[in-house]
Amino acid sequence: MSGMNPGMDMATLSALAEPNRIKIVELLRDGPLTVGEIAEQLGLRQPQASKHLKVLSDNGIVDMKAEANRRIYKLRPEPFQALDSWVKSFQRVMEERFDNLEDYLRELQNKENT
Amino acid sequence: MSGMNPGMDMATLSALAEPNRIKIVELLRDGPLTVGEIAEQLGLRQPQASKHLKVLSDNGIVDMKAEANRRIYKLRPEPFQALDSWVKSFQRVMEERFDNLEDYLRELQNKENT
DNA sequence: GGAGAATATTCCTGTAAAGGAATATTTACA
DNA sequence: TGTAAATATTCCTTTACAGGAATATTCTCC
């Protein structure tokens, strides 16, 4: 109703709102990685790495490709596109102005209702 | 080390990663609002609205201006700018390509190490 | 100064989720 | 076929945090 955004996907944000998971995502920004590589670079135990990757995967943030013993994880573009357009829907706020205007309108309205 | 981003502020994401709080933020996108207005529009009890606003405020997402009895909350631009540039740091991913390239490089490297 | 709004704070309780440790699963390879 | 590597899964425990209900605080106005 208030724009094209069906609302940012809560799940995406929840998935990212965890220190180790965000680190994983930032690691993967530079290219696909193996579970073991991720665990090592972040100083995580393998099971925790796998669990976090599962969460990321369940939320469509990450993609997996099996290759023999290894599982290679990489970022999926979609969530980032979505996040991008969500953030863009706050452009007016980001550019400031508008605050003052609205502020002013609010005060007008308040006086009227008194 | 890996780019200009000092790392997205975890706190920002955690603060947003809660259903009611994201609804508050989206409400405020259209302009400043009073605690009562927010509570009413979202069907929240006043105390919970206040609590969520406190979290948002503590994390610099929201700004408060006292006006008599009322407290008027509005969005602060900074976190959204930060989020925006963070997301932008994933441009390569968002634009796809790169996956295939990196993929290919990975495989090369794997063969070498065998 | 007392009453009643609007908002904040406190205390309590339930629950989701993260980490640890152990174990299961799959694959390569000798 | 047996062993070892890489990964996933399960079970347990602990902790953070959201909601409910009650109460405190601050302001206006008579």
UniProtKB/TrEMBL annotation, chains A, B:
Q: Which InterPro entries match?
A: ArsR-like_HTH, HTH_ArsR_DNA-bd_dom, HTH_MetalResp_TranReg, WH-like_DNA-bd_sf, WH_DNA-bd_sf
Keywords of the record, alphabetical order, are: DNA-binding, Transcription, Transcription regulation
Family annotation (SMART domains): HTH_ARSR
**Pfam families (alphabetical):** HTH_20
Q: Matching CDD domains, A to Z?
A: HTH_ARSR (cd00090)
HTH arsR-type domain residues are 1-95
Parts forming coiled coils: none
Q: Which domain of life is it from?
A: Bacteria
Task: Give the matching NCBIfam families.
Answer: HTH_metalloreg
**Name the record gives this protein:** ArsR family transcriptional regulator
What is the source species? Brevibacillus porteri
